[in-house]
Amino acid sequence: MLARTLTSTACLPALLCLQLFSVEPQDSVASSVAPTVQANTAHTNTARPNVSQRSTNPPTNPPSNGQAGTAGGSREEEALAELKYCEELASDGRWKEAIAGYEKLAEKFSGTNAAQKAAKRATPGEIFGWSEMLINGPPANRVDVVILGECYALNKLKSFEKRAENLPKFFDRSEVLREYESYFNYHRGYQVSSATQPSTAKKEQETALSSKLTDLAEGRSVGVDQGRVQAVLKDMPHQDGLAVVYVYKEN
């Protein structure tokens, strides 16, 4: 069952302030980060595309014989080629392979910029991949919304993907947001947490976005660290500082 609080400024596509909460059985409590987003938008009345669960382009072949790039390419170029391959694996849902690839790259090409990025992405809590979910136009004139999962272990990311696919449908149910639906692009960001439960007043947990459950008179509320979310978003290729976070919680 979804419950929501939506607040918009005068011109929604240019200045957006959003807060969304969701409680779903067995799987997740969803919270969002709600900064004001500024975007240069150009509205077009086009048919809505289907929500994409996976990239239609499979990953390219891995660098052959442990070598990346063309013959004679620099070490940095070889590292960047392997980094791109790991990104493609993550986008294709081959998350375990992607993380293992980042770890291998970080060791093999130590000292390169690509290796530094790979080492960060292999760290629990950091963004290690992303995929386009619903694209209505170029990022330059759309609001790019990133959907993140909090407290998800690697083997639960498919559940996160299914939850993420509900968000555009949720926006469709809002009269205000539906009017501007073609202004939005939706992207999934993949990360895993060391702990699969939010922190509580009694116990701290090490999670990707420092989520915390709070007991209120009307029930339980969950929140995430907005500063941490903004730091994570910086590693996404397309984003406007706006994220919706699904927080996983086992019963």
Keywords:
single chain; about 250 residues; alpha+beta; 7 helices; 10 strands
Describe the fold and architecture:
The protein is of the alpha+beta class. The strands form two sheets. Strands 1, 2, 3, 4, 5, 6, 7 and 10 form an eight-stranded mixed β-sheet that branches. Strands 8-9 form a two-stranded antiparallel ribbon. 27% of the residues lie in helices and 25% in strands. Helix 1 packs antiparallel against helix 2 and helix 2 runs antiparallel to helix 3. It starts with a strand and ends with a strand. It contains seven helices and ten strands. A hairpin with a 4-residue loop joins strand 2 (15-23) and strand 3 (28-33). The protein has helices spanning 75-91, 95-108, 113-121, 157-164, 166-172, 175-179, 226-233; strands at residues 2-8, 15-23, 28-33, 37-38, 129-134, 143-150, 184-190, 212-216, 219-223, 242-248. The radius of gyration is 19 Å and the shape is globular.
